[in-house]
Amino acid sequence: xxxxxxxxxxxxxxxxxxxxxxxxxxxxxxxxxxxxxxxxxxxxxxxxxxxxxxxxxxxxxxxxxxxxxxxxxxxxxxxxxxxxxxxxxxxxxxxxxxxxxxxxxxxxxxxxxxxxxxxxxxxxxxxxxxxxxxxxxxxxxxxxxxxxxxxxxxxxxxxxxxxxxxxxxxxxxxxxxxxxxxxxxxxxxxxxxxxxxxxxxxxxxxxxxxxxxxxxxxxxxxxxxxxxxxxxxxxxxxxxxxxxxxxxxxxxxxxxxxxxxxxxxxxxxxxxxxxxxxxxxxxxxxxxxxxx
Length: 292
What we know:
Elements lengths: L13 E3 L2 E8 L7 E6 L4 E6 L6 E6 L4 E7 L7 E6 L4 E6 L10 E7 H6 L2 E2 L2 E7 L10 E7 L2 E6 L7 H4 L11 E5 L5 E5 L19 E7 L2 E6 L2 E10 L2 E13 L5 E8 L2 E6 L9 E7 L1
């Protein structure tokens, strides 16, 4: 995804719902292409790099210092894009990127995060899947995944119904993100479109690069959607067997574009956003944002 941002301007800055403080910390060059964040505990985060890098998970502190690295045994980082964790401490690494539209089969790697923290290598379960598509539809590009009630939810970055040539044009590749679901266990699955979309899907339409969905997190009833231009947050609850979304913290808007690829909610007053490195903009870095 580095090629998308030679037109970017300046580093990340924030406006929108009230921040008590925003602290920026540089990351090691080992995390130059950071693409996913997850919470390990209150003081340690888990991070991964984008495709083409070594199959490593990094444990870092809240200042970005690398505390430990663990190798996924016999894994390949084709296009790792996001992280999520379930209520049993299973970590999910979503190998779901498809920027050029050339992949047809995708992977989620499932592992025990506590075993990974105490070991140099860790085994994993592989969840392969294909999208349920009509013959004339292109395969989606996805960078955002979250776990909810025994399922993994995938939010696409582009409109898969556009012709392949148009889908490569970042300024026309988004009309509505789409929402697919797979089980959190089992190989050779089919990703079917969700019966109920997240509210974000109805608020974004053909607005270009700033609204491309790059990461999602769900913690303690708060649902966050990260794009290059903003962070939208919603409260989530179940009502009559449906998932209901309502505005939570509101919107956190970014004054300038940069390659923001990961978000994690630490608690209801603190979130962390990560930005990849860029030859003009610097980085990589993380932003620890404390809310009022």
